[in-house]
Amino acid sequence: MSVLLFTIIVLLGAFLAGLLGSLTGLGGGVVIIPLLTLVLGVDLHYAIGASIISVIATSSGSAAAYVKEGITNIRIGMFLEIATTISAIFGAVITIYINPSYIAVIFGIILLFSAAMMIRKKVDRSDNDTSGKLAVWLKLNGTYPTADGVKKYAVHNVIGGFMMMFVAGIISGLLGIGSGALKVIAMDNIMRIPFKVSTTTSNFMMGVTAAASAVVYFHRGQIDPGIAMPVTIGVLVGSTLGAKILIRSKPEKLKIVFAVVVTFLALNMIYNGLSGRI
Amino acid sequence: MKSQRKHFLADKDIQVILGTLLRVGVISSMAVVFLGGVVYLLTSHSNLVDYAEFNPGKSGMSSMLAVYEGVLHMDGAAIIQFGTLLLIFTPVARVVFSIFSFLIERDYLYVVIGLLVLVVILISLSNKLVG
How far is CA B71 from CA B67, B82, B88, B106, in A? Predict the structure, then answer.
């Protein structure tokens, strides 16, 4: 395949990945890695390197908007980044020692899990019970703007959330994805932060987390300009367009369709991993 | 009450600057990647791609020095890689800015937390981690 044709295919694929990823809240990396490896036969290590760069671009781009609106809790983000950066570097360091087949299988499992998380019914368990001593000491309890004015919320189980972020960071560094689904578990279910705050704060953290592992990938030669260029541009343009569409409509049906596609991709990754083709 | 409002305003200002910093970082790095992409396609559009096997030394673009030297020669791949590095350093710049803003707020606990995150990232810059 010529460089020109490869660039065009990847650009279109990355655009679609970014668009669907932002419409469904799943992120672009989960589709771009199967596209590169299963469809275009790119080595998994290159796919991971390109994907992590697109994670930085999309998360920084949308964080810019959320931070200005005052929804993001910067303190929660900074505090949890201690966990995610350390573990992301760890993940990026060990990824080269693990058989790519195993990585493909782990990737497939995380994909299945993310698809399930995407369509499940969310229950907001946030409250304003500020009895957590650690949350008070770290000044994590905050406020966010809603339609009925500024609302207060309290943060729970800080240690549990911090531990879960270690897992999210390792997965992020190992697979080159934002691992938003795991971050959301840590924040929604363990720390019981309101959705709006947890999604924007998780997004805010993703940039730094991805940057930490991206530097390791860079030095290892996993970030190839010929792949990173169309992937980053495509995903960023797609996700920016997706965010604009999201303001006008809530695509619930699309989520189900996308969950089916993602499940199919996940099973493919697992099958190819188990049969040693990746 | 008055001091509280003042504090809120300061927080708001910091959020706006932070948002702008991230946006400028993403837009400028993407512009560089795009420019590099155009040069890259003009010079090597008809070459054949070969990404089937991971080869650490293949792109020759895995050190900041190599990227810098390539950019001086207007090499497309090096310009893309330079834009990629700008993008990687955008969230890092955000951490540095946050540390200063917490310093202005005299929130020393978060100055320390920010410095911790920064130290972790600086450790990742060591190319001995590659293995």
Answer: 6, 8, 17, 41
Q: How far apart are the first and last CA of chain A?
A: 20
A159's tokens? 């240690």
pLDDT digits (tens, 9 = 90+) for B58-108: 888 888 999 999 999 999 999 999 999 999 999 999 999 999 999 998 999
Identify from A36, A40, A170, A219 which residue to disrupt to test chain B contact, counting B C-beta atoms within 10 A and taking the largest count. A219
User: Could you read off the pLDDT of B11-66 as tens digits, one per residue?
Assistant: 778 888 889 999 999 999 999 999 999 999 999 888 888 898 898 888 888 889 99
Per-domain residue ranges for chain A? Answer: 3-274
CB B87, CB B33: distance < 8 Å: yes
Global pTM reads 0.91
Backbone φ and ψ for A109, nearest 5 degrees, come out as: -65, -45
Q: How far A110 CA sits from the closest chain B CA (Å)?
A: 23
Nearest one of A245, A237, A117, A119 to A181, comparing CA atoms: A117
Cβ-based contacts of B33 with chain A (< 8 Å): 228-229, 232-233
Q: Do B124 and A75 touch (CB under 8 A)?
A: no
* Stated length of chain B: 131
Task: Convert A192-213 to b/e letters by CB count within 10 Å (16 or more is b).
Answer: bbbebbbbbbbbbbbbbbbbbb
Q: Name the residue type at position A73.
A: N
Q: Look up residue A117 and give its two tokens.
A: 């998380």
Nearest to A78 among B55, B56, B117 (CB): B117
- 3 state SS of A125: coil
From chain B, the residues in CB contact with A139 under 8 A are: 107, 109-110
Give the tokens for residue A83.
Answer: 């966990």
Q: How close is the nearest chain A Cα to the Cα of B15, in Å?
A: 5
The residues pairing with A73 across neighbouring beta strands, listed in sequence order, are none
Shortest alpha-carbon distance between residue B75 and chain A (Å): 11
